[in-house]
Amino acid sequence: MDLGAITKYSALHAKPNGLILQYGTAGFRTKAEHLDHVMFRMGLLAVLRSKQTKSTIGVMVTASHNPEEDNGVKLVDPLGEMLAPSWEEHATCLANAEEQDMQRVLIDISEKEAVNLQQDAFVVIGRDTRPSSEKLSQSVIDGVTVLGGQFHDYGLLTTPQLHYMVYCRNTGGRYGKATIEGYYQKLSKAFVELTKQASCSGDEYRSLKVDCANGIGALKLREMEHYFSQGLSVQLFNDGSKGKLNHLCGADFVKSHQKPPQDRIVYYYHDADGHFHLIDGDKIATLISSFLKELLVEIGESLNIGVVQTAYANGSSTRYLEEVMKVPVYCTKTGVKHLHHKAQEFDIGVYFEANGHGTALFSTAVEMKIKQSAEQLEDKKRKAAKMLENIIDLFNQAAGDAISDMLVIEAILALKGLTVQQWDALYTDLPNRQLKVQVADRRVISTTDAERQAVTPPGLQEAINDLVKKYKLSRAFVRPSGTEDVVRVYAEADSQESADHLAHEVSLAVFQLAGGIGERPQPGF
Ligand code: NG1
What three-state secondary structure class fits 456? Predict the structure, then answer.
């Protein structure tokens, strides 16, 4: 380690004094102007992690659904997974070290993790379309090079695409080619093969209107379009040509406001009375898990399927999955890394957050079994095994990927001959409301039971319990956000009016008991 060079370069990416950040649900996220030093240091950390694992590590510069002014960074581990928890702690220590302590922290991490500094290191980098991202990814590269690491900068990529690249590079190309063409080829081949089985003809396929939230998805879907010469027609909205990133559009906006974006959205429709219907991650999990279950029955395999949700899953979805579909459902803390971890316990784990983040995971043993069955079984069984094989290929095994999810959903709807309305009618969502409350320090709220119960501050959970009792079919919980400086409030009940009232009353309780700042929460949305 050339400590002199590190100190010299670090001074060019100096940390603002006293700034403390935490590697949260999805890496570091804050205003872009506070992140230069974090980027440089994550470049350094990625090199250490790469040396330790003797593998390629990914660094993604993005703040996903946050406002355009924010940015963020997360590291991708060798098999395309989220960074290991012990390294999240190292990331937090390194990001928060004052300039004069940087060297010591770097040495500490290397010693604790027994990093062989002579080992080669390789880091791949991707970024979103935020105006601040290009410069910030350059700071990552500075960090990588000063520690002697080699790198490949993919430039503009979606986060799941970077996960895919990391996974491909660390599995010797067996999973796919670590190029953007490789990604499109893998997905389009599986989609075209899968939908060949649909009984309806090609031109009956729905044309899909996609809300791209004025972000990277627009660029990437446009690139992907010509890989689907037939079978899928995609029209892009909020494609970044005029609107601002995530402003009044995007899945997060639509889910939390329960209304359409200024332009269009993936999987929503207006009914005959003009009412807006959103088909969220819970319904996606239901569609996918029921289809997978049907295929397994056809093949005659008794593999265990589990669905993993968070506390934000609509109560009706959980009931439907457990009682009608007889699928076991588990609840974890918010953030896909928690869901992913739980889903790995099953032969097939389907996990989705209500906001649409998610995927289906297939254990390696299952994947091999299905591929063998697809070769050996007869007729109908063989057809089902082939379909399953294509679905496995379509899901980006490395991460929840909205593009993969969209293709799987389109294929299932086509294969089952289902309209979006029929899909939506599987069960009726309980009315719900999500709100944000500003507090001085959101860490005063701690939770347990997969974030469904508040442990601190004292009295808050009791207050929520009393409020919940006033409404029918009701449920409410609060938790500090891992990506924004707010406390999130969720409530559901038998009517929209009740859900709105309950959410407002819980917000007031948070404001009073957890140190609210600014204006008291007002009723009405
Ligand atoms: P936080 O800010 O911790 O609530 C949000 C989403 C998560 C997850 C992450 C990562 C909600 C309520 N929360 O987390 O589900 O997607 O962002 O992007 O939607």
Answer: strand
